[in-house]
Amino acid sequence: MINKKIILAVTGSISAYKAAELIRLLKKRGADVQVIMTKSAREFISPLTLQGLSGKPVLDNMWEPSKGNGMEHINQSRKSDLILVAPASANFIAKLAQGLADDLVSNVCLARNCPILIAPSMNKSMWENPATQRNIELITKDGIAISGPENGEQACGEEGMGRLINEKMLLLDINKSLNFPILKNKNILISCGATFEKIDDARAITNLSSGKMGLSIADEAYALGAKVTLIYGRTEKVPPSGLNCIYAPSHSLMNKYIKENAKNNDIFISVAAISDFIPNNFSGKLTKKSTGLTLELQPSTDILLETASEFNDLFCVGFAAESKNIIKNAQAKLKNKKLKMIVANCINESMGQNSAEIYMIDKNEVIHVPKKTKEELALTILKHINKLENKRGITHEHIN
Ligand SMILES: Cc1cc2nc3c(=O)[nH]c(=O)nc-3n(C[C@H](O)[C@H](O)[C@H](O)COP(=O)(O)O)c2cc1C
């Protein structure tokens, strides 16, 4: 979002106060935020608060002669990368659907020449009302992107659909609206996080994977327009609710869900650190002994190898965290597991860390990517996968 110009349009919903935190999050990510608001929105939050947080005067009146050339209702979107209506009231959605323009916010939206994303927020009966649903259908057909709403407890005390989408998912949708959707029409399956295997009814073995790399890839793939399915084990952060996620905290569940979903996807990016060994099953609790305890572990199956062998059309990408001979070991895995690409890194410098240095390896080349944050790496990796996968499409076309 760095240097992106975002018009944040706040309308008259009870969740208008959440716009304050949203401005802070957008600015933290480097966006330049111009707030505009409806007359009703002023009843819910003071323009002064929004002005203080955005660092710019809030615009809410198109009849004010002192501003610029007096054409703010047209000028605003000309200078912007995105109009974000958050929260979007039922009334405002109806106005958007009909092309009404009777205040500054509705004029800016109607006269826009940049993308628009709306985040509805209202009582569940207002949301479920056929009129609102009809309006949502209309604006979707007009190419307006919609984030949420979500289900849950409402300000009025009722429970249901209509809450403003959670901020993590809203930020992903904002990124999606700002990005060129290079992964549109691609179905991407991603596994991430650590698995854990029970030793007895109270204990388990796991590994040090934080899930950060896989979660960053899932977020970025979604923001680049892909349809993402995320199979996740134990992770330091929870994936945003709204992404298509399946919790799979053991080898057997990873195996089940990856294989069930493999056939419906074009690309599989296997980032999960899945147990290579599984303890023998013990029911009950092992008793504490001063002599120590010897655990017997059985080797588990290699899910990535099996998936790549079984689903020939799936573009399979692996991750190799190595402690020595990084490139050589990763190249051997690329070949043995029949992968299209492998991302290699040094285990001590990447596992659990926020950044890493990686090598992107396929059968033709090794590309070194110097140390970057995992969010930045996710973008680099996805762009490279997309390039290789598109080349594969061209090869298929030539053969046919
Ligand atoms: C206390 C209160 C809370 C409201 N909350 C919402 C809401 O969450 N969502 C909504 O769509 N309308 C809500 N409304 C109704 C809108 O504020 C009303 O339709 C208004 O005309 C919207 O104006 P605007 O779309 O120009 O901002 C609420 C009204 C009141 C009095």
What does this protein look like?
With 400 residues, this protein is an alpha/beta fold. It has 2 domains: 5-178, 3-Layer(aba) Sandwich (Rossmann fold); 187-283 and 292-399, CoaB-like (Rossmann fold). 37% of the residues lie in helices and 24% in strands. It is built from 15 helices and 19 strands. It has helices at 18-28, 41-44, 47-54, 72-78, 90-98, 104-110, 124-128, 130-141, 167-178, 212-223, 251-262, 303-310, 326-336, 347-350, 374-399; strands at residues 5-10, 32-37, 82-88, 116-120, 145-146, 150-153, 159-163, 187-192, 197-198, 204-205, 227-232, 244-247, 267-270, 277-279, 297-299, 315-322, 341-346, 355-361, 366-373. The strands form 5 sheets. An 8-stranded mixed beta sheet has the order 12-11-8-13-16-17-18-19, sandwiched between helices. The protein has a 5-stranded parallel beta sheet with strand order 2-1-3-4-5, with helices on both faces. Strands 6-7 form a two-stranded antiparallel ribbon. A hairpin with a 4-residue loop joins strand 18 and strand 19. Helix 4 (72-78) packs across helix 6 (104-110) and helix 9 (167-178) packs across helix 10 (212-223). It is elongated and about 80 Å long. Residues 396-400 have low confidence and may be disordered. Bound molecules: flavin mononucleotide (FMN). Flavin mononucleotide binds at residues 11-15, 38, 40-41, 89-92, 121-122, 126.
